[in-house]
Amino acid sequence: MKKFIKEAVSFLKSRGFGEPEVGIILGTGLGKIIDEVSIEAEMSYNHIPNFPTATVEFHKGKLIYGELAGKKVVLMQGRFHVYEGYSLLDVTFPVRVMKQLGISKLLVSNASGAINKTFKKGEIMLIDDHINLQGGSPLAFKGVEKLGERFVDMSAPYDAEMNAKIETIAKENNINLHKGVYASVVGPQLETRAEYRYLKIIGADAVGMSTVPEIIVANQLKLPVVALSVLTDECDPDNLKPVDIPDIIAQAGKAEPQMITLFTELIKSM
């Protein structure tokens, strides 16, 4: 793994990727923040040694380096998922690469379904805690101790200081920001009515198919992280409607300007 990481980092540095301060992972339908970046280098995932390739049609599949809000950043325009057939090591490999490039903070976004009935689609939830329902761990492999601690503490996986700043920024910009627990499932099928009821019982406010593996690895790497969920549908088991993927993408786009504000203002404050 160390060898694979080193090869990817060396390649990126040779292609103009400098030393970013902040890493950003962009979720489904959340790519327009790229328009705010002064791009200095970019590379398709399939050209980077040892990188997986994004297979989801609404994930672009590029690593981008440049300047955003006065800071050097590296952005993943599209992420990887277990449901694409990748291992948890594959899914989290880019986090390890970004850390070796130099990032000291990680910002993550995703699209998710609202379990909490007081949350509405088109709104944003700040992730305060999570439930891992992906059936495995990105740290469960031989030799993991060479990359960091094996038994990583997860009592506070999301950085309290960055979370507090995000909440302040939301108030200053009149953004209705929720705060809650994100449950990460494998997918790609959406949940049944019974599964939505189960998720509510165990304490989830939103559900999605990503993010948690990256957060676990960020914590192993001692990398402070903040994560935002754009709520793209309402998961009320008593009034459940068939999934509408175009509407999910549309809802992500509706909330995206607010997410961009939260992230750019947070980066300015660093």
UniProtKB/TrEMBL annotation:
InterPro entries: Nucleoside_phosphorylase_d, Nucleoside_phosphorylase_sf, Pur_Nuc_Pase_Ino/Guo-sp, Purine_phosphorylase. CDD domains: PNP-EcPNPII_like (cd09009). One of its GO terms (biological process) is nucleoside metabolic process. GO terms for cellular component: cytoplasm. Keywords: Glycosyltransferase, Transferase. One of its GO terms (molecular function) is purine-nucleoside phosphorylase activity. Pathway: Purine metabolism; purine nucleoside salvage. The purine nucleoside phosphorylases catalyze the phosphorolytic breakdown of the N-glycosidic bond in the beta-(deoxy)ribonucleoside molecules, with the formation of the corresponding free purine bases and pentose-1-phosphate. PANTHER family: METHYLTHIOADENOSINE/PURINE NUCLEOSIDE PHOSPHORYLASE, PURINE NUCLEOSIDE PHOSPHORYLASE-RELATED. This is Purine nucleoside phosphorylase. It comes from Patiriisocius marinistellae.
